[in-house]
Amino acid sequence: MRPSTGQGVDIVCAIAVNCIWGLAFVIPKYLSELDPALVALGRYFVYGMLSAAILVAAAAARGMGQVPWARAFAYAFIGHVGYYMVLVWSISRGGIMVVAPIMATLPVSVAVVGNVLNKDLDFRRLVVPLLLILAGITSLRIYQNSQAALQHVQVRDMVYGALLALGALSMWTAYAVLNARYLKRSQISSVTWAQAMGLCCLLQVLIGLPLWLAFQEQRSQALEWASNVDTLARFLAGILVLGVVVSWFATQVWNRVSRRLPITVTGQLLVVQSLAAIVYGSWLERQLPQWIELLCVVAVVVGVVWGVKAAYEPAAKGVQWAGRS
After folding, report:
1. b/e per residue, 82-111, with b = 16+ CB within 10 A?
2. Using alpha carbons only, how large is the chain's radius of gyration in Å?
3. CA distances from residue 284 to 21, 22, 84, 239 in whole angstroms, order as listed
4. Half-sphere exposure of 133 (CA within 13 A, CB side)
5. For residue 296, which of 286, 307, 304, 308 has the smallest C-alpha distance?
6. Secondary structure, 3-state, the chain
7. Residue 114 in contact with residue 106, Cβ under 8 Å?
8. CB-based contacts of 14: which residues, under 8 Å, 6+ apart?
9. Statement: the pTM of the whole predicted model exceeds 0.70
10. What are the pLDDT digits (tens) for 97-137?
11. Whole-angstrom Cα distance, residue 30 to residue 235?
12. Is the torsion defined by CA of 268, 274, 275, 276 positive or negative?
């Protein structure tokens, strides 16, 4: 059974969100001279300030009393600020060659954990497409990493980087599954929930910024780059795009599709994020993908289409997925 028209729109929206999230891997390349942690803090500062401004302007804060703030604060950390900081830390310690293959398993981890908790469908329907996705994207990342110049990374740093990457993978997997489960049974709107997490991100940034400054070896020089007009302009442009489009807008849309679609579907669609990052990177570097890369992408696409079809086959037996926006 095919998904309904409304569910088809939600699938398209989920794909669009992951295309937007792909920008998070491209924009930092233009800010390589800045501390990645500062870029992350700037991103979520913009997200939080925009959320606060909209709530005040729309007088929506009256409905915020129903928000479970402890949950919002926890989800803001494991799915946004904390996750991104751990990811940045893992890359700085172990390098992208160590981290990328681990993070490439995110679509599989979300789909598997989500299906274990929700029991959307028989795992036998999901095993083959998930293995195909895992094989395709892992092979792609390993191949691309093998083409990069091998950096001199200490074995200890590689181990730390891998452990941190596993931590980041676990954090976002937990966020995706728990957030979707909460939205499916909650009366709170997807938009309000996104603003609540934005406010919590702002609070975490206000806590994190002094800590970042405290750990700088030369605090007086930590923000010297701001005196360079070009660097400052690129920093502001970067965090505005990351904060407004990649975080604020994308989070609201993702909340909506997480509420309306099975986690087995949204989990698999996360693969589009990695594919989008690859396309953006190839376009910016003006390089066409190699045949091995194209073969891996085809395997991933086939796996996703197969997995989405498998997720909707039980609908013929009376299982329906719907939700509130």
Report:
1. bbbbbbbbbbbbbbbbbbbbbbbbbbbbbb
2. 20
3. 16, 13, 23, 19
4. 31
5. 304
6. CCCCHHHHHHHHHHHHHHHHHHHHHCHHHHHCCCCHHHHHHHHHHHHHHHHHHHHHHCCHHHHHHHCCHHHHHHHHHHHHHHHHHHHHHHHHHHCHHHHHHHHCCHHHHHHHHHHHHHCCCCHHHHHHHHHHHHHHHHHHHHHHHHHCCCCCCCHHHHHHHHHHHHHHHHHHHHHHHHHHHHHHHCCCCHHHHHHHHHHHHHHHHHHHHHHHHHCCCCHHHCCHHHHCHHHHHHHHHHHHHHHHHHHHHHHHHHHHHHHHCCHHHHHHHCHHHHHHHHHHHHHHHCCCCCHHHHHHHHHHHHHHHHHHHHHHHHHHHCCCCCCCC
7. no
8. 253, 254, 257, 261, 265, 266, 269, 272
9. yes
10. 667 667 777 877 887 887 778 766 666 777 787 788 778 87
11. 9
12. positive
User: Which residues of the chain carry a pLDDT beneath 70?
Assistant: 1-6, 58-65, 95-98, 100-101, 119-123, 141, 144-155, 219-222, 285, 288-289, 308, 310-325
Token pair 């409905």 is at which residue? 63
Burial of residue 224, with CB atoms counted within 10 A of its CB: 0-12 exposed, 13-18 middle, 19 or more buried: exposed
CA distance 200 to 206: 10
- Residue given tokens 């039980």 in the structure block: 314
- 209 exposure class (CB count in 10 Å sphere: 0-12, 13-18, 19+): middle
